[in-house]
Amino acid sequence: MIEQLFGSKTRVKLLQLFYGNPNRQFYVREITRKIEEQINSVRRELSNLLSIGIIVSDSNNNKLYYEVNQKFKYYAPLKQIFGNEESVSNKISDNSKNKPSESSLSIVGHVDLAILTGQFTRDELSGVDLLIVGEINPNALAKYVGELEQKENKNIRYTVMNLDDFKYRIEIRDRFASNILNAKKQVLVDIHGFLNDDTNKEEE
Length: 204
Hints:
Elements: H1 2-6, H2 9-19, E1 26-27, H3 28-35, H4 39-52, E2 55-60, E3 63-68, H5 75-82, H6 88-92, E4 109-116, E5 130-136, H7 138-152, E6 158-161, H8 163-171, H9 175-182, E7 186-190, H10 196-203
Parallel strand pairs: 5-6
Antiparallel strand pairs: 1-3, 2-3, 4-5, 4-7
């Protein structure tokens, strides 16, 4: 029904990808791979979304990157329709293998906070791509990161710390913690609301 309402299966998949991954930027071939649609169809719909203002683009290193426009007038209602806590990979590629989701983080242990930044958001302020805070099983985490690297086709720099250590770093305004809070990021898990105020600011 949503495809009929919005006129195109490719357009719906793109909206799910962008609204399911705010603050993340994707280039055309990456998008094509993730949503499993033809590149010509993807380019046509990207052009349509750009003209409307739903997404914005930015060129870097001879690649054109796209991300959702959080200042778009109807960003909030569209996010309610197309964005949720599940990974977009689950919604648009249910039968695809080796695609870890946010929900699959539960296999690594008790996760209090997990964010994507760095290569994922093209913001190197923190110096890492993935931060996980909690009581983590190292072997399970290594498996998760390995699957994520395979899915994203890139080496992932990640940092793990326990909850008390992260809280302490915030309290003393540790440089790494401050950089994490200020970096452009995609929040996967934040059960204590550490980034609520920060995230709201990003979306205003």
